[in-house]
Amino acid sequence: MAACHVVQQTHPYLNGHYIALVGNPNVGKSVLFHRLTGQYVMVSNYPGTTVEVSQGRLRKMEGVTLIDTPGVVSFPSRSEDEQVTERVLFNNDLRTVIQVGDAKNLRRTLHLTIQLAEMGLPLVLALNMMDEARMRGLEIRTEVMERAFGIPIIQTVATRGNGIEEVERAIQSARPVTLKIQYPPDIEQALQAIEQMAFESPISIRSLSLLWLVQDPVCEIWVEENTANSIREKMIEIRSGLMEKYPEGVDLVIQKSREDFIAHLVQESLQETKSSTSSRIHLSHLTIHPVWGVPILLMVLYAMYWFVGVFGAGTLVGLLEERLFGEIINPWLIGLSEKFIPWEMVRNFLVGEYGFWTMGMTYALALLLPIVLTFFIAFGILEDSGYLPRVAVLSNRLFSAIGLNGQAVLPMVLGLGCVTMATMTTRILNRPRDRILVTLLLALAVPCSAQLGVVMGMLAAISFSATLIWGGVIFLVLMLVGWLASKVLPGERTPLIVELPPLRMPVFTNVIFKTLARLEWYIKEAVPLFLLGTVILFVLDTLHLLPALIETLKPIVTGWLGLPPEAASALMMGFLRRDFAATGFFVMQSQGHLSDLQALVSITTITLFIPCIASVFMMIKERGWKIGLGMVAFILPFSVLVGGFLMRLLSGLGWGS
């Protein structure tokens, strides 16, 4: 075991007002955050995750804020997420750090524990998922680890609330501890040389020196901004000397000393008995099997489609939009407005064809709310069960063909519910390149559930071959545009590195809190965009610009797409929402105004059309106005171009005649 000792010390941050929640990805940080604050935050590696730091007030410590940070593997930080977490440790007035560790993966947990303990900050280790560790036959003697690190270590099961009170007590009594592991003599001399330089540090100078020696980017920025040139030059000279002495990497030498320390500690504190989870582990392996994992995924997606598409978009939307709003609320409000509002323009603004309530609020609350509610519930179940990372693993090969990794499947699946919120959740992707690419594919070729329902109804009225042609064209466009865009956008595809949490039964309260948190986001972020789009349409209609725009579309609709002139009105509605246009085409088909070929061309074109106006606003908000409007400028002519080519190809082949 590498030599080490623990030093108790006073710390200027002990009276701070912040506590940082730190840990590896998928160890239960967000669940513990909820237990300690009464709020739920979505910080993980999957939908609802961003690199932003979320905060909440501790319930039992007045005036103290808990900071929930993105998952970090170790330092030096290599991703934007890890750098955010490290900046919290460097720049905030911290009272305590709570590390959430995975009891099943003790070695990985302790790698991060060592680095946090070396920082000299007050530290508490919440060893989470103890129930799953015991089911795997693992018994952990935390008292041995407490003596080695000099910190309180609490065994927790955050999903059940076990150990939460002990964590709250440990927070209040935590004291700064500096762990000192003995590194090779050359490295120790370098550390001592840097420690002798007179400068203040937000963490222990020894820890800062270790980060400097391994070229940690956050540390380098801090040193650049907070130390004199003379000190920085000496530090560079010390590091350069070590790099010459250890060409294999100073970080590997430091890591070896830590691994020796961990190996000895695990040997003393970890006992393995007979596992009782063979069936669950077997099922976990099946979910990522290249053969058996696919039918399992298809069954999960079908169940999700039924719950969201049939129950949410069908049953609930029918009850709310058609009956509650269509037959009760909206007629009542229209009657009130006619009785009490003498100004026609005000009435039209509130309850007219493009009314703030009759269109904006009705679509936001009666049409989309049930869809996103059922989707959030289904998504929360998949997330809490640990299945979502397995979806990313299974789809990784497919997405590699277009320069992405399996992480992209999550916004794409979310887009089948609502492209607007799916665009926002592209934040989970690690690099701006990937976010731009997925945003483009969402806007171009992923129909939302409302549009998909209408499209399926139209295809069912034609033939099964029409369904195959439509699906083939959309898939081909998605893959071709994705491949070309991946070649144009700078940067290389990042490999999929994902932690696979164990499969578990979802906890009801977790799913409910996640759903409520996401609904709050929907109401705050998405609904205002729908209302803004409605106001824009009302203004265009009031100024009589909509009819003029429809007239300009007729030559394209009839000449290139080969559709009847009245199809221009339906296509114009696509600028507001694609499902509006699809509904217009559906009505034309049901009235016999579209042939089978024209119906297929119309729904293919509108599937590839720009998404709803709220999605366009979200694209601009997330990607910037240049990129957002650039995508719109590409999608509009491209969708019409594909529709026209499809018309000519199928006509030449005699399809539908």
TrEMBL record:
Amino-acid positions noted as binding Mg(2+) in the UniProt annotation, renumbered to this chain: T37, G38
Keywords: Cell membrane, GTP-binding, Ion transport, Iron, Iron transport, Magnesium, Membrane, Metal-binding, Nucleotide-binding, Transmembrane, Transmembrane helix, Transport
Membrane topology term: Multi-pass membrane protein
InterPro entries per UniProt: Fe2_transport_prot-B, Fe2_transport_prot_B_C, FeoB_Cyto, FeoB_GTPase, G_FEOB_dom, Gate_dom, GTP-bd, P-loop_NTPase
Keyword Cell membrane among record annotations: yes
Localization annotation: Cell inner membrane; Cell membrane
Pfam families with a match to the protein in the record: FeoB_C (PF07664), FeoB_Cyto (PF17910), FeoB_N (PF02421), Gate (PF07670)
Homology family: Belongs to the TRAFAC class TrmE-Era-EngA-EngB-Septin-like GTPase superfamily. FeoB GTPase (TC 9.A.8) family.
Entry-linked PANTHER family: FE(2+) TRANSPORTER FEOB, FERROUS IRON TRANSPORT PROTEIN B
Protein name per Swiss-Prot or TrEMBL: Ferrous iron transport protein B
Species per Swiss-Prot/TrEMBL record: Bellilinea caldifistulae
Native organism taxonomy: Bacteria, Bacillati, Chloroflexota, Anaerolineae, Anaerolineales
